[in-house]
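Exercise: predict the structure of this protein bound to nicotinamide-adenine-dinucleotide.
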Amino acid sequence: MGEFIIMNIDQPIPISGKDKKILIIGLGQIGFSNAEYMSSLGLKVDGYDINDKAVKRALDAKIIQNKATSFSDYDYYIICISTHNPEKMYMPFLDGLFQIAHRIKNEGKTNALVGIDSTITRGTSNKILKILEHRLHVSHVPHRFYINEQIEHGVKQTRVLGGCESCCVKEAVHFYNELLNIPLHIVTPIDIAELTKVVENSYRFMEIAFAEELKIVCDNSNVDFKELRQAINTKWNIEILDAKEGIGGHCLPKDSQMFLDLTKNILPHSLLETAKIIDSRYRRHIDLLQNTTVSEPYENNLVPDQSLTAETISSLKNEFNVTETDVKAYLYSIIKKIIDEDPELVKNTVYPKQDSR
Ligand SMILES: NC(=O)c1ccc[n+]([C@@H]2O[C@H](COP(=O)([O-])OP(=O)(O)OC[C@H]3O[C@@H](n4cnc5c(N)ncnc54)[C@H](O)[C@@H]3O)[C@@H](O)[C@H]2O)c1
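Solution:
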């Protein structure tokens, strides 16, 4: 099968669709938006989540009809659970997904569709198909949800769809395009769908990391990052992003780790590896810069660059191979840490002269 695109037209839901039962598994940001969208189309939607609060939120919002107590008797199982390690957000973690697959294997309706909307690593969909022994169909339609633009970039936006077998593709196209009215870009094999999400977020990670690198360089060499960025972005094919608070959340760090894991046996080095180092360096950079501006009780008295000689700063710079701004920022943060941990000690020992002034 070649690639093709199905654009949706605003068509009414087929009568047959109204009787179908959907179970959304995982009612976080993605599951909630899915349930909200599907119930707004008049479809029958139930929900399931290991977190009772997530279920209550969906019930209270009336976007699911019931909390599922059994996985039997659904036509569509839409998996929206988190796929990162709860302890380490940047680490992929698929155990929950496989547990769900085993439950669907035992309780799920034959010929129903399992649609994986969560972000997954390459090969996961086929593992799920194997667990289910292809008694149910399996598709992967990774979500591209963006919370700040839910109308344009919510559930209904162009989505990439892959299915494990051609019958899975057919069932998935019926569900996502004909019932949900979502424009689709259909790919084969399903690995392309799995990789699409992971690679698009890896690419985004690198774009942000480059902006962060540029910001560190500007801050440490007396260049106005904002002015420089504005100037560069006047070129038609360049868009340097803003450098904000570092790459947080679970999506970009975890998805880029999925790609990085894939590169390990193929390439000795990866741009992404460096991008991750830059991001962590950038977060330390802004942390240190922010620490220099907090106004704590003793903060106004902390002026290490005035109390240290130029020679001391220079030797610290050389010894640790860092910039002068870094040296000062480190010193501020060390002094602040001491103050936070034992303010009384600082009062009595570091500032005795000021007390007697
Ligand atoms: N939020 C986004 O903007 C976004 C965008 C694209 C893709 N995704 C992907 O979608 C998936 C879900 O993301 P999210 O932002 O909704 O996460 P989330 O943390 O907001 O919600 C995940 C939900 O899944 C539930 N859950 C976890 N394990 C479960 C299990 N074994 N059984 C039942 N429920 C379980 C959690 O309790 C939680 O309510 C992730 O793979 C994420 O990478 C998210």
